[in-house]
Write a structure and sequence with these properties.
single chain; 195 residues; minor pseudopilin epsh fold
Length: 195
């Protein structure tokens, strides 16, 4: 059985960039629902119970078709949000790993490309910095898809579903994204780059 992870910080810890009410609803309602529905979907799949979420999502096409969408949507929602919480911290936004600067020419170039991918994601989804072998790429996925299905390792993920920002930013997704850079936990990003 999967469990809702702790945030590791208080709901108001990311203020003024991400407000406490959004964090509480996002974590305690949205993420909690993904975990509950994932566990429910896996009840009829004993051979998948106890497997790490990364393995389940990487091999999602092996899940029986009648349960696949529920596992994809809710397993992806659980996995993506777990990474998202870990990638933020109060007082974040200090210094990105040198590998990012090297791969994209400068931090400003990386930030511009990543932001464009996040702003340009039509509808709901995620923007990602991923590792594909030795290369770093910026991609986006729709809904709760993950890069794992393409054997790419997520390094940094940004939730651009409206529930992530609408209470504070309404339809101003670019403003939310600009604010989010202030809470990125580059220590966590560096650890993921080195695994």
């Amino acid at each position: 059985m999967f469990e809702l992870p702790d945030l590791g910080y208080s709901f108001d810890a990311l203020e003024p960039y991400i407000d406490a009410q959004t964090m509480e609803i996002h974590h305690d309602k949205h993420h909690a629902a993904y975990v509950a529905k994932l566990n429910e979907a896996l009840q009829s799949l004993p051979e998948w119970q106890g497997k790490p979420i990364e393995e389940i999502l990487k091999y999602i096409e092996s899940i029986p078709s009648d349960a696949r969408n529920a596992v994809r949507n809710n397993g992806g929602g659980h996995y993506n949000h777990t990474l998202f919480w870990e990638t933020m911290k109060p007082g974040g936004g200090k210094k990105p790993p040198e590998a990012i600067t090297k791969a994209f020419g400068s931090f400003d170039d990386f930030k511009t490309k990543f932001t464009a991918e996040a702003v340009g994601r039509f509808g709901s989804g995620w923007a990602w910095l991923v590792k594909d072998g030795d290369n770093l790429e910026i991609i986006s996925t729709q809904n709760q898809e993950t890069p794992l299905k393409e054997s790419k390792a997520p390094i940094l993920g940004l939730d651009v579903w409206e529930h992530a920002y609408y209470l504070k930013y309404q339809n101003r997704r670019p403003e939310y994204i600009e604010a989010w850079w202030n809470v990125v936990n580059w220590d966590t990003v560096a650890k993921r780059l080195n695994t």
